[in-house]
Amino acid sequence: MKKLIYSILFFLTSCVDHSEPKVFELEYPEKEEKEQVKTVSISPEDTLNYDCTRSIPGPVLDSTAFRDWNFKLEKIQEGNVLQGIEFALLKSGNYLTIINSGCEYYSLTFEFTTRNYSGKTDDLAYWAKTTVSLLNEIKDHCDAPVDWETLEKELLKAYETNSKNALKKELIINDSEIGTVASLEKVEQLDKQTFKISLQYSVGPL
To answer: Any residues with CB less than 8 A from the CB of 96 and at least 6 apart, and which?
Structure first.
């Protein structure tokens, strides 16, 4: 009898998939490349001559918490403003790009690319809930001045309780003198299985 029990347990444990989530190759359609802000390489003079209220954009993620990670600093051609581009591959297999920008404002744009969720792009209640799930994947590993609890609450309140609200609706996170706002900027279907969600979070004017 014991041999039978051990055999069953061995069979069950051997059937469990212990592998990490599959990673898909991240590709963007041609139209997306045309929409990107034009940037140029930075020089030492660019950082020395930096004249914004906020600090020079830097990484906000704990690089050790992700399967792949990198950061680069760029100069936006129009306006001579610096922005940071941070990329991470999450343990779930989702991709995250953070655009750290602004001059008088501290602005973060979170762009998630996923195959773990799917739905109609105009079902904003679903995508607001999805965005909250994605934020929960990173918030413990993100050292940025983000009020995660209020952000998630306002996202759900805006779209789950009012289906008429559209993208880019300004969500008030903090209405003090140095205010904080957020907005669900985009929900795009890149191909049959891949979706991209863009969320902006801004603090200021500083």
So the answer is: 87, 88, 89, 90, 110, 111, 112, 113, 134, 138
The closest of 116, 112, 170, 174 to 145, measured between CA atoms, is 174
User: For residue 137, what pLDDT is reported?
Assistant: 97
pLDDT for position 181: 98
Q: Residue 199 in 3-state DSSP?
A: strand
* pTM for the full predicted model: 0.82
Task: Report the distance separating Cα 132 and Cα 184, nearest Å.
Answer: 11
Residues 66-117: tens digit of each pLDDT: 989 999 999 886 666 899 999 999 999 999 999 999 999 999 999 999 999 9
In DSSP terms, which residues pair with 184 in a beta bridge?
199
Write down the residue that tokens 């191909």 correspond to: 191
User: Distance (Å, rounded) from C-alpha 164 to C-alpha 190?
Assistant: 24
Helix, strand counts (H, E) of the chain? 5, 8
